[in-house]
């Protein structure tokens, strides 16, 4: 597909841009790996000691040399070694990624399972009281910061009910799916809350648009019953904005949900990058931001492919 | 005080709890098996495994469970044996001899020998290691190893505090073989009570008991440490019995622990001190009167009551019980706004001035609150403070450069006054640039204290030092706080030390 | 015997208080089986609302039947009042007993479902057919509307077919379950005139085959002559006149019917052509506009590297000239290149080749913009966020002028000339009706006193009676300012009223050009003949059209392709036609 | 004025308009210092005082009046939200217009740069900016603005591209109108509607983002107050002083609700496509 190849060609360009941006910005931040490791004690180092440590962390060269070295490695798939983890950056990322992916998938599933039917329902009840209730709920969902939702969930469950999923020791899905889901469900709900609200709102307005289209009138004129009109004729046409929104949100979620990961103590990408920034683990910050950006672009690509799947005009057109 | 605003009847609470647990899946209930593994949580993880390089409290707490120094401090800050069974200063104070525990073994099975001690200290002293603690050991001229269990430190000058410095895990003895192979920092092979089985930074550690530990018998099978970055989550985990033992930093969270009948909160006063650092090289803090005015204008107890909910003790510069003076005897520890105004006016700043105070975000958790109370208190004498919060590393960078008017800080304390303060208040102290204050009296007292071996005389010297320091007010010392450990009823035997060490976990039992 | 459909005192309203906002106010009519009723009216007359009320689709458009009855005799002989029927009963009737087709075939089919799926659905719903049976039935339905290669087309999605084809698919769908009543709501308005003729022919043929009744809604009274048995004329929600076709067309009673029949342009095969101008021979003045060998090609790219694989020959070697005071109409169907020609002359498209020269109006000096344009859609060609004074001032400012008293004076003069109130200057476009907006566009085009005005489908978007008035205005302005018009249109009836000369464009080339009366009354080129034959007329009653399934040739040519040099045949003083091979 | 009337006639516009209006009033009062108490005054004897007649919404850890701080917080949050959205909208408009108008290479370049910003995890971008410059009101503004610029660029570029092909732009070209005239009169004026809608919705998002940044300690700095900072400061005090969470929480929710309702109404009013659906 022509359009696809053009998108693929811009991939490396954008990635290069991202890598330069992250490289420069992380180095503009005061403090380095040495102060991150030694804290105020770093002041006790003699100049020779400091030089030795800079060489150890690979920050003794100029930026350009560092970037060149890093880029050369990255092109060969070597993102460098994380100083905090003492492991190749890619290994560290790939250890954290499954959780982030699962969390993103679960939140999206919740958002779509709740938001889509709610939005469609509201659209068919346009301007009636049930529509208003759904809309108000959706707006409240959209206007509550997710840390408030997360903290309230934890608080209500632990104080009010005395139960809480195991926090801290995270169980991978394939080790014990039940326990894993038990751990993931609350963060997923926290993230899915606002996500579902957005899906509700966008699917409602898209459905309203579609329901006023000529072909819906045609379907009705053929005697298609109300449910058939909604699910078979209208919904597939209303999905594109929903896919767009879900794609963007999902893409962001793949970058890690810093706040929710922090509250629920999940070892995901978001916290990893946050910690990497705080600990000045340059290689890890660079590698993971690049990884996240790549994911984001792949998700966008998938979204575009989904458009083609949904809409034959895009599938067969020579866009 | 606690008023849980979702109060429910006990019966309903249990019933709904069960229902909810079922809903969330059986997995959410904590394992009922009385495992002998201690489940523990903390909010800040270690940042590395090299005992000679890591200086953050969070790293030291972990490494103290794995590595051992030659000597360590007990809960009264008395020096007690660790790897060394005994030690002795020579008459001239220039030779220090250690006798090692012949049973001590590293976790790789090798015996701990005097060669390891020599190699460890040589590594520590080498510039390319980049060990911050090197500054404390500059007086070591050479190390002799007459036999496997004897290590002799030859000092270039009498140095009493060096023994206290050796209690730090930053002076841990590591296997010479690991030094040679370059494995320090990537693996953790110590001689301590626990072995590090796995470490996932910022997520969790798994420790197992070291059966061969020469220092005693560890009664738990191991420790699973979870990193829960949000301390409210730690509290929630304690409430739902997911963890047996937790370390808490934030007094706001800690004070909630006793509300839960099944939990015990232990608070131990620590040597670390909360302080408002002034920069005496910056006008108008160059004026003694201005600094003293600030000291007089601050109501230390009020800051403590507000920012830490009273969780701490107003303290002078010397926080170790053996040397501490009653704060009431120190300069202006009773707030005196009138005097402050007078001092300020005498210094030519009757109408006050503006300054910026820096503080680190979340380190300590109470920093922002302290800054705000101080801001409000100083406003009363016309000093307008501008608070600048900084991410920790940015703060450290700024702090090390001495690039601030004032700084809210939580600085580390030591069991020995000299080790604690020589870096700031001697003329060639490594952090003299941070303190930015040169005072012959302080320098002189420091040097005297360093070489004096008679405890009573030392105490006298440092009492004079403390009094002078408080009066000169280069900094405004506020108070010391607590380290908090919370534990379930089934945990027993933990003893905390004022250094904040969790070494006491080696003696913990689980019922 | 009761009629198939009997509508009594139908009232339909909209909004929160439907009774207070009635769009249809007391319409009654009867329709027998096999009969065709044409409902004629302009926009806002309530004709579509009436149609949508019959199968109660109006419920979904925010309307409510406030009064009246719609009695339908069902297949089993029972009578149901559709106005009061529950939705459940209605879904059985819609598609099963009443079929419907709509104005816009391009938007009336679901873009994400294949043609086959959409036709099969009707069989599934009303006949209970599934799987292979339904597919076979769908294929038969497509065959029935004369779609070639039906089996393959079933797998197409709507965007792969042309408008005319889609309207056939719509008809196939609507008729799939042999409804006894078909409602056709302006089914040909969006289509080209030759396609319209074919759809009309198809509908007539199918009606004969099935014996169904039909309600045909249109704004074009000329169109109904060929198909209707009865006519109902609607105005402002009321049926002002109804009766048998001939009676209504020949002896209209109501003034509005007379207006529709008289004042509105109807095609009269050249008889109504203008006779107020004749080309002086030899020419006394240089032409206002000369176009020579105008060629516009758009690249077609393909493959991974987006290499140029061919060209769309949108306009291919067009020559003509236009004298001051003269109107040249360029007619053609969609895709013929007529709009591209106009746009190229205005510099909106870059011509590949060719030259054109415009001469300034000789009567006044200081003229810097000899050619101006009026666009088709008056709603789109005025910036909705600008006030009328800014809109009219724009050409002056663009030409480097300033908002002087002189400019304002010209604005007021032109507003008055195009028949708009003087306070218009302080108003925004949305405060005007479509016809008024087109007058604004004309005034704007005249601000710089051009010698040539290009009118691109300038009256096509307007209601029929408004069309007539704007055409009158154009003729008056032409005389007053000595304007030359290049009038681009697909509507032969309109062209007849305004053109002095006509150029017929087909596939990017002029196939016939000459004096309007001559071209319209005696077309020479086969395409022109076909085009003129397809134009509906009130004179051609109960006429059947032959179905013609030819497709317009593709305009995509390989790289390097050049059309043959045209050979022209002369018919009379001013009438040329391209020789056909 | 007719827009105001249209908003008030629209059911959700009325609610949203009233909420936003009341908040603007509160923000103004907050900025003018017309609060029940001094929002910075620490009544330390009344620390963590439950709501009563004196302290309508209770006091915080320092004994500051929550109601007064809430007013200050609303004004602070509004300043951050309005300033960042204004910056992002301006930058996005310029870039989007440039991309749409110049097309080809410029379009490619601008949109690729926007892709870079979009692909860069937003909160991390904000974090890095804040880490470099240091946290504070104006840094939050800059960070949020940079995160939103690509979104506005897209919002402007799409309609600008389609406006570029509209008849009235074609008409302007036939007159020979200058680029400047076409850009300002024909494109910009018609972009006001989609921009207004997007701005209103972005304001809601900016309030949320500010709250998120404050939670990570990167937003507004003490002792100033913002809704997000109040919320995040309350997190460890939920049990002791629930009013510290409840009031700012409600304030932020209702505020965002107001912006969202107003945005929806504006979309209905300004977007002719929706007007058709509503008719």
From TrEMBL, chain A:
Protein topology in the membrane: Multi-pass membrane protein
Domain ABC transmembrane type-1 as annotated: residue spans: 97-307
GO terms under biological process: transmembrane transport
Gene3D superfamilies on file: MetI-like (1.10.3720.10)
Pfam family, one: BPD_transp_1
Stretches that traverse the bilayer: 7-29, 103-123, 144-164, 184-203, 282-303
Keywords carried by this UniProt record: Cell membrane, Membrane, Transmembrane, Transmembrane helix, Transport
Presence of keyword Transmembrane helix: yes
Name of the protein in its database record: Dipeptide ABC transporter
Species for this entry: Nitratireductor pacificus pht-3B
Organism classification: Bacteria, Pseudomonadati, Pseudomonadota, Alphaproteobacteria, Hyphomicrobiales
TrEMBL record, chain B:
Gene3D superfamilies membership: Dipeptide-binding Protein, Domain 1 (3.90.76.10), Dipeptide-binding Protein, Domain 3 (3.10.105.10), Periplasmic binding protein-like II (3.40.190.10)
Ranges of residues in domain Solute-binding protein family: 78-430
Keyword set, alphabetical order: Signal, Transport
Highest rank taxon of the organism: Bacteria
Cell compartments where the protein resides: Periplasm
A Pfam family reported for this protein in Swiss-Prot or TrEMBL: SBP_bac_5
GO molecular function: peptide transmembrane transporter activity
GO biological process: peptide transport
Matches recorded under CDD domains: PBP2_NikA_DppA_OppA_like_11
Annotated GO CC locations: ATP-binding cassette (ABC) transporter complex; outer membrane-bounded periplasmic space
InterPro entries linked: Peptide/Ni-bd, SBP_5, SBP_5_dom
Assigned protein family: Belongs to the bacterial solute-binding protein 5 family.
Protein name per Swiss-Prot or TrEMBL: ABC transporter substrate binding protein
Annotated source species: Nitratireductor pacificus pht-3B
From TrEMBL, chain C:
BP GO terms, sorted: peptide transport; transmembrane transport
Classification of source organism: Bacteria, Pseudomonadati, Pseudomonadota, Alphaproteobacteria, Hyphomicrobiales
Protein name: ABC transporter
Family to which this protein belongs: Belongs to the ABC transporter superfamily.
InterPro entries named among the record's database cross-references: AAA+_ATPase, ABC_Ni/Peptide_Import, ABC_transporter-like_ATP-bd, ABC_transporter-like_CS, Oligopep_ABC_C, P-loop_NTPase
Source organism per UniProt: Nitratireductor pacificus pht-3B
Localization, UniProt: Cell inner membrane
Keyword annotations from UniProtKB, A to Z: ATP-binding, Cell inner membrane, Cell membrane, Membrane, Nucleotide-binding, Translocase, Transport
GO cellular component, one term: plasma membrane
TrEMBL record, chain D:
Pfam families, alphabetized: BPD_transp_1 (PF00528)
Recorded superkingdom: Bacteria
Key words, A-Z: Cell membrane, Membrane, Transmembrane, Transmembrane helix, Transport
UniProt GO cellular component terms: plasma membrane
Topological category with respect to the lipid bilayer: Multi-pass membrane protein
Example of a GO biological process term: transmembrane transport
Keyword Zinc-finger in record: no
ABC transmembrane type-1 domain sequence ranges: 74-263
Location(s) in or outside the cell: Cell membrane
Family matches, as InterPro entries: BP-dependent_transpt_permease (IPR050366), MetI-like (IPR000515), MetI-like_sf (IPR035906)
Residues annotated as transmembrane: 12-34, 78-102, 109-132, 138-156, 187-208, 240-266
Family: Belongs to the binding-protein-dependent transport system permease family.
The name this protein goes by in its record: Binding-protein-dependent transport systems inner membrane component
Organism of origin: Nitratireductor pacificus pht-3B
